[in-house]
Amino acid sequence: MIDVVMPKMGESITEGTILEWKKQVGDSINKDEALLEISTDKVDSEIPSPASGTIIEISAKVNETVPVGNIIARIGEIGESPTPNRDTKLDTEEANSKSAKGKSKDVEYSQDTDMVEIEEKAPSSLETSNISASIQSSKRFYSPLVKS
C-alpha cells in the first residue's frame, strides 16, 4: 500500500487545498497519471500518482485544506478492494501525527550524520591543488568560481 501525501510545492508552502479528485475510490490508476488537483497560496497544480494500482482510500475531501506531508489518499495493489469506512480519517490523522513526530528526530539525526560524512570526506590541500592544476591546464572553459 502506498500513502499519497500532500506535496510541498515550494519552500514556504505549509498546506494545500484539494480542488478536484481526478480519480475516485475503486478506480485503477497508472504511475504519473493525474490523481488530483491542489491549490496553494502560490500555485495550482495537478498531482500525479506516485504508483500504479487501485485507489483504496481518499482521506481528504474537495475544498479541504491539508498540511504538507499529511496522508490524503492510499493506493493499493491493482484489483485490491477499497478500505472499509471504519474511522479511516482517525487512522490517517494518527499516522500523520506519528510521522510528523518521527520526521523531526530523523532530520536531526541525518544532519549530524551528514556533518560527520562531510568532515571525513574533505580533500586534503594536496588533492585540491592537483584538481586546480588539472582544471587550469585543460582546454575546457571553467568559470572562475569552479577554479577556486
From TrEMBL:
Keywords in alphabetical order: Lipoyl
Protein name: Lipoyl-binding domain-containing protein
GO terms of molecular function: dihydrolipoyllysine-residue succinyltransferase activity
Cellular component, GO, one term: cytosol
InterPro entries associated with the record: 2-oxoA_DH_lipoyl-BS (IPR003016), 2-oxoacid_dehydrogenase (IPR050537), Biotin_lipoyl (IPR000089), Single_hybrid_motif (IPR011053)
Region ranges (Disordered): 77-115
GO biological process: tricarboxylic acid cycle
Biased composition (Basic and acidic residues): 86-96
Coiled-coil annotated spans: none
Annotated Lipoyl-binding domain residues: 1-76
